[in-house]
Amino acid sequence: MSEYRLAEKPALDVLEGLGYEPLHPDTALAMRIEENRAILKPVLIEAVRAINGIGEADAEAVYNDLATLAENEDWQRKLRGGYSRRLQGENRDRPVALIDFKHPANNRFHVVRQFRVAAQRSRIPDIVLFVNGIPLVVIEAKSPLKATAKAEEAFEQIKQYERDVPRLFASNAFNIVTDGIATLYGATGAPSQFYAPWPDAWPRRRADFADDLAKDLWCLCEPVRLLDLLAHFIVFETDPETGRKIKKVCRYQQFRAVNKAVQRVAEGVHRKGLIWHTQGSGKSLTMVFLALKLKTHLTLDAATLANPNILVLTDRIDLDNQISTTFVACGLPNPKQAASVGELRDAVARGGNGQILLSTIFKFAGSKDPIPNSANWIVLVDEAHRTQEKDLGAYLQATLPDAFFFGFTGTPIKSIDKDTYARFSIEGEGYLDKYGIDDAVRDGATVPILYEGRKTDWAINEAEIDILFDRWFVDLPDDKRDALKRKGLTVATIAKHPERIRLIARDIWEHFKAVCQPDGFKAQIVVVDREAVILYRAALAPVIAADLERGGLDADTARADADAMIACVYSKSQEDNKPSEDPDVAALRAELEKHYLDAEAEKKSKAAFKLFGHQPSFLIVCDKLLTGFDAPIEHVMYLDKPLKEHGLLQAIARTNRTCSIKLPDGGEIAKPHGRIVDYIGVTSHLDEALQSYRSEDVENALRDIAILRNDLKEAHARYRVHKRAMGLEGLDEKAAAYALREIVGNGREDEWFDLQRLARIFIKVYGDLSPDPAILDFTGEAKWAAAFLRLATQVIAKDESLDHRSYSGKIRDMLEQHVHVTGLSTTIRLRSITDPEFADDFDTEEKSEPELQEAFVRKSAELRRVTRELVDRNPAQYGRFSERVLEIIRRFEAGQIAAAEGLREFEGLTGDIETEQGAHAELGMDENAFSILRIMEAIVPDTDHAVLQDAAIAIGAVYAQAKASQPAFPHMPEYLRSLRQQVRRVLAEHDIGETKAIRDAVEEFAVSAYGDGQ
Predict the structure, then answer these.
(1) What is the pTM of this model?
(2) Could you tell me if residue 132 is left (phi over 0), alpha (psi between -120 and 50 degrees) or otherwise beta?
(3) How do residues 396-418 score in pLDDT, each as one tens digit?
C-alpha cells in the first residue's frame, strides 16, 4: 500500500487537478469492449464525431481502423493529422482528425489506475493517461522508501509491459517512472539510461508548484503541453549504423528553446535570436524540432507561420551533411539539400511554398541582390559565430534582408564577438536560450571532461622554444641543427622530436591499458600535423605489439593486431606521391601514402571505431575529426597539439558524449567522464587558452582530475560514517551481510538504502580515479564495500546484485580476485546452470537451517540471473520461467514455504529450463531455429505447428547464412533490409500471417543470436 499512498495516489491527485477525468478500472474495461484492447471506444467515437462532424457509422469505422493499428510511428503520423478515409456518401478520402490540437478543450482527457490488459502474460500498469480514448502515457509508480533499490524494477516493469501487452503501447507517446519525489520520462522502447528528468518548468517557476511531483507532471502531462509534445517534439530517427528506427522525445531545453523561437516568429516583433546549446546536448535535434514546429505548427495559428520557407545553413560541408542526414533520418517533411549556388538562389527566389532547404553559408559569398519575398523565410544558422567571418554574414543579410534569423551554437560566443550578437541577438538579450556546459553535465546529457597534464618536461611553452630546442636537439649534428633553425623554430619542431614521441607513445599505451581498455572504451590522439600522425603511428604500433607478445601472442599476430588497433585520419596532399631526393622526405611520403584512408575507408574506420569490440581503438588525427565527429565510445583524448578558444572547446567535446556499453555477461558500463591527457601544456595555461570567453560560460569546460581525488576522500568519509552508525565496522563481509538482514527486518530498511547509495558512490569514484596513485589508501575498503554490496543484495533481495556488473572492468577484476582470496566465492560467485556444481544446493539432507537458507539465497540469485539473461535473449521462450522464480521467492519471503521446500521447487524449475533448452534436439532443430519457432508460436498460436517448424528452420537458415557471409550484418542497414525481405518470402510461402510482427521480433532476436554480439 505504500506505493499507492506515497506515489500513485499523489500522482492521481495532481493529474485530476490538471484536468484529467478519473475513470474506475471497471468503467474503463466496459469502454474497451474486451480486456485485451486498449482504446476507450465510446470516448474515441464521441470525440471523432464532435471534432470532424461525422456520423456514428463513420466514427465506428475510424475505431475499427485504429483498433488494428500496431506501428507506433504510424500511430504518431495519424495522431498528427496524417489520417484519412472515405466517409459515407463521399467519393474520395478526406482527412479525419483524431485530436483537436488548436482547441485543447474540445478533447477528452482521462486517467485510469490499475489498467489491466489481458494477454498471454497479462499486465497491470499503475496509471494510464488517455486523450480522446487513446492511451498516450503509461506511468509506473514506486514507493519513495524503495526508490534507490527499486528504480531498476520500475524500468523492468515498463519493459515487461511493452513486451507483453504491445497493444497498450502502439499509440504511446512516452512513459513515466515516479516515486512521488523524483520523476523520469522516456520514449516508447527506450532503455532506462535514456529516461531523464524535466527540471525546468518554463515558462513557470518551481515556486509555482506545491512539490516536485506537481511540477514534473505539469511539465509533461498538462493537457496543452502534452498536445504540444505530441504534435511537435517526437521523432523517429534512423540510426545510420544499424538502420534501426529510434524514437526520440525532446528534452526540456529543446522544448523551451523551440517554443521561444516559434513564439518570436508568431509575434513577428523581433526577427532574430541566438541559441547556445552546448556540444553533445542534442543541438541538431533542437533544429529538427524547431523546423518541425515551424512547418506544422499544429497547436497555434499566426500569419507568419502560414506557409514559411525554412533555410538551414552550416559553415562546413561535413556539418551540412550531418544536419541533412539528421533531418532526413527524422522524417522531416521535404528537406532538400541545395547542391549548387544556382540551385540555392533559384529555390530561395522562388519561395512561397513551404520549402525546407539545407545548404552552406559559402553559397551566399558575393551575393548582394535582395530576394523580393525574403520575409517568408526563416533561416536557422548552425555554428552561427563562424558564419560572420569573411563578410559571409553580411552577404546573407543582404540576400535575405527581411528574413527571420536564428543562430545556433554548440560553444559559447566570445565576449568580444560583437558581430554575432548584433546579427542574431536583440539588444541587451544575449542568448534567446542557453543550455551551458554545467547544465548538460548536471542533467546527464553529457559527461564532465577531466584533464590531467602529463610529465611537465614534455610540455611546450612557446616563449621558451629556443631553450627547449637546445634541450631536445642537443645530440643532433651541427649541420642538421642549423638546418632546422633556418626553417624557423615552431612548436611542431619540438613536438615531433623522435625521442619525445617514443616516450609519449609508451605513456599513452600504459595509460590506455589502465583507463580505457578494461571497459572497451577508445581514444583519439591529436597531434600537430600530418607528419606527426605518421611518427606517432610508427612509435605506438611497436609498443603495442611488444606488449601483446609478452601476453603470449606470436610476433606476426601481435604486429597484425597492433596495426589493426590504430587508424590514421588526415587529408591527402598532392605532394604525397611525388619522389624526393631527400631520403627522410621520401620515407615520410611513402608512409603518408601507405596509411592514408580514402573516403570509403575512412568511413568504415570511423564506423568501426564507434562499435564496442571492434578495431580500431585509436584514431590518430591532426585536423580532421576535431569537430562534428560524434563517437560516444571515445573516453580519452591524448592531446599533443596546441589548441585554444573555439578549437579547444570543439576538440575536447569529442569526449563528452554519454555512453553505456553492454557487456557479454549482461552488465552495463556507463562512461563516467571524458578525459583529456595533455602532453603539450594547454591545460597549464587554461585561462589564457579560453580568455576570450565569459568566465561563467567556460569555468567548467575542463575540470582538473585533482577534483576526483577530493571527491574520493569525501565519498569515503560519508560511507564510513554511515557504516559505523549501523554497527557494521569491524565485521567481515559475510557477517556484515547477515547482520544487515536483521537490521532490515527490524524496520531500518531506509538505513540499508542509504548505505547502498553511499557505498556505490564511493566505489564509483574509486574506479573513476583508478589508476591514479591516490586510490591506494582506499583499496582495502573498496574491496570490502564491493563484496559486501554484492553479498548483502543476495541475502536481502534474493537477487544477484547488478552493482558489480555496472562497475568498471578494473573494479570487477579486483572484486573477483578479492572474493576468491577471502573464501567468499562460495556465496558470492554465482554459477551458471551448466556448471557441474550448480545442483549441489539441491541436496538438502544433513544441512542445518542456516545452511539451507544460504543455499536458497544463492539459488534465488543464480536463477534470477539465469532467467533474466534467457528472457533478454528470447522473452517468448523463457518469460514463464522468470515469473516462476519470482513466485517461489515471494512465497518463501511470505513464510508460505521453508528453504528446503523452496530448493526442491527450484530443482524442478531447473529441470524444466534444461528440458526447454534441449527441446530443439528432439525436433531435429538447431537451438536458434527453435527459439524462432517459440517467437512465432507466441504471435500466431493458432497456426499449424508443423508449418511453423518448417518456417522457423528456413528463417534460421537465412540468418545462419548471413552470419557465415557477413558476420557484422547487424550494422549493415541495406543487408538487414534484404534479410527482412527473405524472411517475408518464407512467411508468405508458408501462408503465415502477422508478418510484420514476426519479422520485427525475429530480427531483434537474430541480431543478438546470429550477429557479432554487439
Answers:
(1) 0.82
(2) left
(3) 888 888 889 999 988 888 877 77
